[in-house]
Design brief:
This protein is an all-alpha fold. It is built from 17 helices and no strands.
């Protein structure tokens, strides 16, 4: 009887721990997709493990941004978009709508393309890889809708937990399966340097720092902590803990991919590159290494698709509610998975981007990267503005001088990174 009680307490403790960390882990899983894995591995191939410090810095930058989003929401009871609409007005809503639609198309296409190409590597039933990518991609888009509509946030979070576990066990294991100079890895983590001073080396470093952890999807954190019932200032420390865990996982994925890229010759782009890496791991280590890595890559790309499918309709529904109601109604309305607006955008997100599957993944990923880079400087600026007023967030939650300094640095960095991404 005592053993049963102890086992129950242990199980409850593990479940409580997972619930505490879940929103941060969801941000990590949604933000790490095929493009992030490709960027990290290609950077490793070009610059080696000396550039690992950039992964850590990139994850830290996204932590600061997402923590600011959570801090605003907990202090005011309003989402980030509600705050922007209230203090920036109609021009913000118009600009955000104009940004959200193309972003949704290109990211939706990139997600389905990555899932399709990775699944084709598992089950190559089609002679033409392009055909396999299209059919599997469409199937994953539909499957994501069915899963989210069938079980809502709770089923979504359970499936994401499985994908996160798969990603962690397999992708993190892959570097251990091959001989690695761990002393060089340690130096690369703690000594910030770029191996050479060429413009190409700087571009890869910027891409690695800016590509860690997603772009617009960081907004989804606010809706997930609301689903978990987190409100008020007492939840701030919990949010910092789960975001710390989430972005630590993001950094570990990036570090693993840089190490892998430094050890094998990689070619191609996006999902094609992931398949190429798996083949080369299979040739150099053994067939099992190919399937271990592919399992982790599939967990990464499918969890990213599910995260976008589940959360981006929240963003759309939130903005629509802000444009159609007066100030009193805006404060009272909370977006829901059961609203017609949420469902409509979910269906549009999973269908219209299917047309992008008929184009190359590399082209989709490039446009998506450019569009995503445009959002981050705005986010840094908005958090400087919104969280910089103690009469809005309270003195306790107002940006500290060091936070304002970091946000200013993030603003300048992503403006520069975005400029570098523009052809």
């Amino acid at each position: 009887m005592a053993d049963d009680t102890a086992n129950t307490r242990t199980a409850n403790g593990r479940q409580s721990c997972l619930r505490t960390l879940l929103p941060g882990l969801l941000v990590a899983a949604t933000g790490v997709g095929a493009g992030d894995l490709a960027t990290a591995s290609l950077t490793g191939a070009h610059l080696g493990v000396a550039i690992l410090w950039a992964v850590v810095v990139g994850a830290f930058l996204k932590f600061v941004l997402t923590e600011g989003l959570g801090r605003w929401q907990l202090a005011t009871g309003k989402t980030f978009l509600e705050g922007c609409a209230e203090h920036m007005g109609v021009p913000f809503l118009i600009a955000f709508f104009a940004y959200l639609f193309p972003w949704s198309f290109f990211v939706g296409s990139a997600m389905m393309s990555a899932c399709g190409a990775t699944m084709h590597a598992w089950l190559p039933f089609f002679e033409d890889a392009s055909t396999g990518k299209i059919i599997y991609g469409i199937g994953h888009g539909i499957a994501g809708v069915l899963l989210i509509r069938a079980g809502g946030y709770r089923l979504f979070s359970r499936v994401m937990s499985v994908c996160i576990g798969l990603m962690f066990v397999t992708v993190i294991t892959a570097p251990v399966l091959q001989p690695v100079d761990w002393a060089a890895v340690l130096r690369g983590l703690i000594v910030p340097r770029i191996p050479d001073v060429s413009p190409e080396a700087r571009s890869w470093t910027i891409a690695l720092m800016g590509g860690v952890g997603g772009t617009l999807t960081v907004l989804c954190y606010g809706y997930w902590i609301r689903e978990e019932g987190r409100t008020g200032k007492t939840a701030a420390q919990t949010c910092r803990i789960d975001l710390g865990a989430g972005y630590t996982m993001t950094a570990l994925f990036g570090i693993a991919m840089v190490i892998i890229g430094s050890q094998v010759t990689v070619e191609g782009k996006g999902a094609t590159l992931i398949i190429d890496i798996s083949d080369r791991l299979g040739n150099t280590i053994g067939a099992y290494a190919k399937w271990v890595f592919l399992a982790g890559a599939y967990g990464a790309v499918f969890s990213s698709l599910l995260g976008v499918w589940q959360s981006v309709p929240y963003i759309f529904a939130d903005v629509v509610s802000l444009t159609m109601r007066d100030n009193d109604e805006k404060r009272a309305v909370r977006v829901s998975e059961n609203s017609a607006t949420y469902r409509t955008y979910l269906y549009l997100l999973a269908t219209i981007p299917m047309f992008g599957l008929f184009y190359g993944f590399g082209a989709m990923q490039k446009i998506y990267a450019v569009i995503g880079a445009c959002f981050m400087p705005f986010l840094a600026f908005a958090l400087l503005y919104l969280n910089g007023h103690s009469n809005w967030v309270g003195r306790e939650f107002k940006n500290r001088p060091i936070t304002s300094l970091i946000l200013g640095g993030i603003l300048l960095f992503f403006l520069y990174a975005g400029w570098q991404e523009i052809p």
